[in-house]
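Appendix C: a fully annotated inverse folding record. The material below is reproduced so that readers can follow the format used throughout the book. The structure is listed first as tokens, followed by the designed sequence.
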């Protein structure tokens, strides 16, 4: 008997891909913005991919979502108003609600991502049922241009800098973001794999350095993202200084990670030069 195995693969380069053995493909849709696929994998539970790239899996989503929310949370004044751009799975909003933040606006361009998350990732997307979270389906770039609101944190939880997310890595966008931050507010963006996507990190770092007073890059280990090493870049119109406060421990995040994630390997430092 011949066993037929099904695999989903994300291509990292012409010569390398990461493959997940799957039990089933649960969904494949082409929206106005992107292609969304959902797989039931053997090792990582349900996996959401957009345009062929892994966005989240049930098993390791906590790392990305803790790191994009909890790290910037512990610097400068305690945040009370937060804007999320992207993040249609609800994972970033979930962590912010758990940190006690009561005023969160989440602007996601593609309502289909939200619908898929509600159906297939109910625990993660449960944030959209919370009274603290206001979900707006729209373009984050347009929202920033048209709104006059100020935020203590702006979290850019976007896809990679191609397609609808390209403008989210531009200097012009960071300039607009600055006018929506409180005096010592912080913006944070996911800035890609330093190993496979050094341009995304360089774009985020350069764009933010030209606009903000202080910029800091930190990294996390995310097994289902290209190379496993992932970068985040945060910036503020003021200096970025840690608060003297004990930290909540997550499943990945803890007080050691809060310090240690800013210690960068030399090849990452070189991308930032
Ligand atoms: N954790 C993810 C990663 O780095 O792979 C990001 C996940 S989240 C699903 C990314 C979201 O950003 C997508 O749902 C996408 O629709 C949204 N997005 C992309 N461009 C956007 C824009 N201009 N405004 C608002 N949302 C945007």
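Designed amino acids, in order:
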């Amino acid at each position: 008997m011949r066993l037929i195995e099904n695999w989903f693969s994300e291509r990292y380069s012409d010569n390398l891909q990461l493959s997940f053995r799957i039990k089933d493909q649960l969904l494949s849709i082409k929206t106005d913005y992107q292609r969304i696929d959902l797989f039931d994998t053997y090792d990582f539970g349900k996996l959401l991919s957009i345009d062929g790239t892994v966005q989240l899996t049930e098993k390791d989503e906590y790392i990305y979502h803790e790191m994009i929310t909890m790290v910037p949370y512990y610097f400068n004044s305690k945040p009370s108003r937060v804007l999320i751009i992207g993040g249609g799975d609800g994972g970033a909003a979930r962590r912010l609600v758990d940190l006690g933040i009561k005023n969160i606006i989440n602007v996601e361009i593609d309502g289909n991502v939200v619908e898929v998350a509600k159906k297939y990732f109910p625990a993660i997307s449960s944030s959209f049922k919370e009274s603290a979270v206001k979900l707006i389906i729209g373009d984050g770039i347009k929202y920033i241009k048209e709104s006059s609101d100020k935020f203590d944190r702006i979290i850019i939880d976007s896809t990679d800098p191609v397609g609808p997310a390209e403008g989210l890595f531009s200097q012009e966008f960071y300039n607009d973001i600055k006018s929506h931050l409180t005096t010592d507010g912080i913006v944070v963006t996911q800035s890609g794999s330093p190993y496979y996507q050094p341009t995304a990190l360089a774009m985020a770092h350069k764009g933010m350095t030209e606009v903000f007073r202080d910029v800091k890059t930190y990294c996390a280990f995310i097994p289902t993202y290209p190379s496993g090493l992932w970068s985040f870049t945060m910036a503020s119109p003021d200096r970025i200084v840690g608060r003297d406060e004990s930290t909540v421990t997550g499943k990945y995040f803890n007080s050691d990670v809060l310090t240690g994630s800013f210690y960068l390997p030399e090849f990452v430092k070189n991308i930032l030069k």
